């Protein structure tokens, strides 16, 4: 009876050896850090010089809407592409984040002195609004995710679609006569978020 050689038992297979190199290690994390810092530097420069570079406010607004849609696409990539979950109700979470961001931006703009131009203080307002909207959407996502933890495929899609439809109906019925969402539940959420801002 022949016994396997010690070299074959101790040496990991080639696939295990290569897994370590796929993670990237310290070189990859440094590269990601430098790319992230570079993007942050470009964003900060754009924040200070965007009005000088693009005096047309409609183009600046178009760029901001494009940036918002890029964030939505990235989050969809995480859910559908990386996690492999089929979630149809993504628009509900985007709506919660957008509403939270709008309330916080309005309140912070007024507490910082208001006036025109609206986006002159975006260096302060945007990070706070992004954090608040991500936190609020994450909180709602946590509460929707708890009962649907074990669901996959079509069942998860139905639950998330139901949540998005509930959110749409709440927004539609909570609108005041002038079309702004100031009545009902969202007025209380908006005043609570405004009190958090200052």
The count of strands amounts to: 0
Quick one: overall form? Answer: globular
Number of structurally distinct domains: 2
As a whole number of angstroms, the C-alpha radius of gyration is: 23 Å
For the biggest sheet, the summary is:
none
Number of helices: 8
Helical content, roughly?
over 70%
Mean pLDDT: 73
Strand content range? under 5%
Q: Separation of termini?
A: 79 Å
- Low-confidence stretches at least 5 residues in length (pLDDT < 50)? 16-21
| Order of H and E elements | HHHHHHHH
Derived from helix and strand composition plus strand pairing, the structural class reads mainly alpha
Keywords: Cell membrane, Membrane, Transmembrane, Transmembrane helix
Organism: marine sediment metagenome
Protein name: Branched-chain amino acid ABC transporter permease
Pfam families: BPD_transp_2 (PF02653)
Structure description:
By secondary structure, this protein is mainly alpha-helical. It has two domains: 13-53; 56-197, no CATH class. It is 76% helix and 0% strand. The chain contains eight helices and no strands. The protein has helices at residues 6-10, 14-23, 25-53, 57-82, 90-111, 122-145, 153-173, 185-197. Helix 5 (90-111) crosses helix 8. It is globular, with a radius of gyration of 23 Å. The termini are far apart. Mean pLDDT is 73; it is low at 16-21.
What is the fold's blueprint, element by element?
Layout: H1 6-10, H2 14-23, H3 25-53, H4 57-82, H5 90-111, H6 122-145, H7 153-173, H8 185-197
């Amino acid at each position: 009876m022949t016994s396997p050689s010690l070299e074959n038992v101790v040496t990991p297979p080639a696939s295990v050896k290569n897994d370590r190199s796929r993670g990237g290690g310290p070189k990859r994390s440094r590269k990601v850090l430098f790319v992230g810092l570079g993007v942050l530097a470009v964003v900060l420069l754009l924040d200070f010089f965007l009005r000088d570079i693009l005096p047309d406010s409609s183009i600046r607004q178009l760029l901001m809407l494009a940036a918002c849609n890029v964030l939505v696409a990235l989050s969809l990539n995480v859910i559908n592409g990386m996690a492999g979950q089929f979630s149809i109700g993504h628009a509900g979470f985007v709506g919660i984040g957008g509403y939270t961001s709008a309330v916080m931006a309005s309140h912070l703009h007024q507490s910082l002195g208001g006036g025109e131009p609206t986006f002159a203080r975006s260096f302060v307002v945007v990070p706070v609004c992004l954090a608040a909207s991500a936190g609020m959407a994450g909180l709602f996502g946590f509460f929707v995710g708890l009962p649907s933890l074990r669901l996959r495929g079509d069942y998860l899609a139905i639950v998330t679609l139901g949540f998005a439809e509930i959110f749409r109906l709440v927004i539609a019925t909570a609108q005041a006569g002038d079309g702004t969402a100031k009545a009902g539940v969202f007025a209380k959420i908006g005043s609570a978020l405004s009190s958090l801002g200052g």
